[in-house]
C-alpha cells in the first residue's frame, strides 16, 4: 500500500514539473503586418477640360506606383481609356496601350494617342474634336493585380437651344429628338450643358429630352404655369419610344 501511494505521489510531481523538452512558450507573439493603402494610384490633374469642335485636347492622367510593393515593376503597365455613356450604364472603348501594343477604337481611330510626357504619364490626346466627343472619360491603369481609375470631363464650347418641330412643341420621342438635333448640326444636350445654359440665363417653359433620357426644362423667371421656381425642372425619365416632348440641342463652336 505504501509503495502504491509513493508511486502516485511521484506521478503527480512529474505532471506538475514537465521536462524542458515539452515546455510550450505561451509568451510568444506572432506579428501580422497589414499592408495598408494602394500600391498604384491614378490621378487627373483637372476634373474638366475645355475645347472646341475641330480642335485638339489633352485629357490629363498620371499614375504613381509604390516601388517597395511586392511585384512592383515586374508587370507591364496597361493603360485603358473608355468613354462613359450619358446614363453611366456603359463604357465605350477609346484607346488601349500596353508596351508597344496600342489600339484605338471606332471613330477615335487615327485621332487619339498617349501624350507620353513622362514614364508615369497616361494622358490621352484627342485631335479633330467632334460633337460626339463631348462627355466623361475614364483613365484606367493596370499593373498585375493592382489597378486604379480617374475620370475626366471633356466640355465643348457652344450653345444650348430648345428645338420643337412645326407640328407642335411635343411631337418627338427620344430617337426622333436625336435625329432632329443632328439635322440642326447639333447633338442632344446633356444635363450639365443645360444646367450651364440655365445659369447663363436660359429660360424656356417647355419640357424637352436630354441625352441621358430625362426630360427637363430651365426656368430663370419663376411663374406659376412653369413651376414657380428658379431652377432646372425635372419631369422624369419617360418611355423613350412612346412619350413625346421637345428636345434641347447643343451646337459646338468651331
Automatic annotation (TrEMBL):
Its main location: secreted. SUPFAM superfamilies: C-type lectin-like, Immunoglobulin. Disulfide bonds join 205-226. GO terms for biological process: cell adhesion; central nervous system development; glial cell differentiation; positive regulation of neuroblast proliferation; skeletal system development. It holds the Pfam family Xlink. Residues 159-251 form the Link domain. Residues 38-153 form the Ig-like domain. One of its GO terms (molecular function) is hyaluronic acid binding. Residues 1-15 form the signal peptide. It is found in: Secreted, Extracellular space, Extracellular matrix. InterPro entries: C-type_lectin-like/link_sf, CTDL_fold, Hyaluronan_bind_Proteoglycan, Ig-like_dom, Ig-like_dom_sf, Ig-like_fold, Ig_sub, Ig_V-set. Stabilizes the aggregates of proteoglycan monomers with hyaluronic acid in the extracellular cartilage matrix. Belongs to the HAPLN family. This is Hyaluronan and proteoglycan link protein 1. The lineage of its organism: Eukaryota, Metazoa, Chordata, Craniata, Vertebrata.
Amino acid at each position: 500500500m505504501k509503495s502504491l501511494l509513493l508511486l502516485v505521489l511521484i506521478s503527480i510531481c512529474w505532471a506538475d514539473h514537465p521536462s524542458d523538452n515539452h515546455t510550450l512558450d505561451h509568451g510568444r507573439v506572432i506579428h501580422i503586418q497589414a499592408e495598408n493603402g494602394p500600391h498604384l494610384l491614378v490621378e487627373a490633374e483637372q476634373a474638366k477640360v475645355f475645347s472646341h469642335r475641330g480642335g485638339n485636347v489633352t485629357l490629363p492622367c498620371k499614375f504613381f506606383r509604390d516601388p517597395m510593393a511586392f511585384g512592383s515593376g515586374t508587370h507591364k503597365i496597361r493603360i485603358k481609356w473608355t468613354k462613359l455613356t450619358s446614363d453611366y450604364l456603359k463604357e465605350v472603348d477609346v484607346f488601349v496601350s500596353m508596351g508597344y501594343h496600342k489600339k484605338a477604337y471606332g471613330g477615335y481611330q487615327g485621332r487619339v494617342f498617349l501624350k507620353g510626357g513622362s514614364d508615369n504619364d497616361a494622358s490621352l490626346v484627342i485631335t479633330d474634336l467632334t460633337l460626339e466627343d463631348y462627355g466623361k472619360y475614364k483613365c484606367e491603369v493596370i499593373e498585375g493585380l493592382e489597378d486604379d481609375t480617374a475620370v475626366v470631363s471633356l466640355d465643348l464650347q457652344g450653345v444650348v437651344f430648345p428645338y420643337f418641330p412645326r407640328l407642335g412643341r411635343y411631337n418627338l420621342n427620344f430617337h426622333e429628338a436625336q435625329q432632329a438635333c443632328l439635322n440642326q448640326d447639333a447633338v442632344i444636350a446633356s444635363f450639365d450643358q443645360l444646367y450651364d445654359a440655365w445659369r447663363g440665363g436660359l429660360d424656356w417653359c417647355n419640357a424637352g429630352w436630354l441625352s441621358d433620357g430625362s426630360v427637363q426644362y430651365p426656368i430663370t423667371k419663376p411663374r406659376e404655369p412653369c413651376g414657380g421656381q428658379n431652377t432646372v425642372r425635372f419631369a422624369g425619365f419617360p418611355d423613350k419610344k412612346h412619350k413625346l416632348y421637345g428636345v434641347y440641342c447643343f451646337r459646338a463652336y468651331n
